[in-house]
Amino acid sequence: MFDIPNGELTPQVRRALTRLLARFDETRKRLDAGHDRELYLQGLADGDVVLPIGNRRFFIRELSRIIERSRMAQTTSTLVLISLADAAAVRVVHGEAAAQALFCEMAGILVAGIRASDVVASLGGYDFGVILTLTAGDAAEGKACDLVRALAARPVDHATRRLRVEPAWGLHEIGASDTADAAIAAADQDLVARAPRAQRR
Fold first, then answer.
1. SS3 (DSSP) at 69
2. From its phi and psi, is residue 79 left (phi > 0), alpha (psi between -120 and 50) or beta?
3. What three-state secondary structure class fits 158?
4. Which residue, 19, 58, 63, 107, is most buried by CB atoms nearer than 10 A?
């Protein structure tokens, strides 16, 4: 025990070491419990209240991490902003439960449509943010189109009604000089620029 020669392990020494080990185990258990509690609380803080995805706080942290990685490794990822603004009418006409059912379904579609390395979160209101990691250019735009088409194509049945949305979207290639807020603002500007083109089609 503790490399102490057996001849020196008197009954008193054994009892003292046993008490020391018991205290060590108790302290370790408390630290493990505290760590688990910290992870649990962080999960509560990062999760959306209604949707099965992260919230804006979580998204900003992940976006900031990816921006830093872009800065250090000179990689490029793409931020996609998806807005379900026309879903406001669902809330007004059909009620809060219908709106929540719609948004939960849309969140599930986004989660199913991205890779494990990508990020999706609710940005609040009617907006979702998606980070397509290590993806840019035509590949990013093609993936954004796929996600938006999947959202628009999936009707949500609630009570006796069938609900649909027509998402608006924009994207921004994440650069090394970006900040999280600047990247979201740039994607929002792209969304606004695309909206008139979508309306003309």
1. helix
2. beta
3. strand
4. 63
Q: How far apart are CA 132 and CA 120, in angstroms?
A: 9
Residue 73 and residue 15 share a domain: no
| SS3 readout for 153-180 | HCCEEECCEEECCCCEEEEEEECCCCCH
The CATH number of residue 108's host domain is 3.30.70.270
For residue range 25-41, what is the model confidence (pLDDT) as tens digits? 777 777 666 555 554 44
| Beta bridge mates, 157 | 162
Residues 71 and 38 placed together within one structural domain of the fold = no
> Does this model's pTM top 0.90?
no
Q: Are 99 and 90 in contact (CB under 8 A)?
A: yes
Contact call for residues 124 and 68 (beta carbons, < 8 A)? no
Residues 60 and 39 in one domain: no
| Structural domain range at position 155 | 56-200
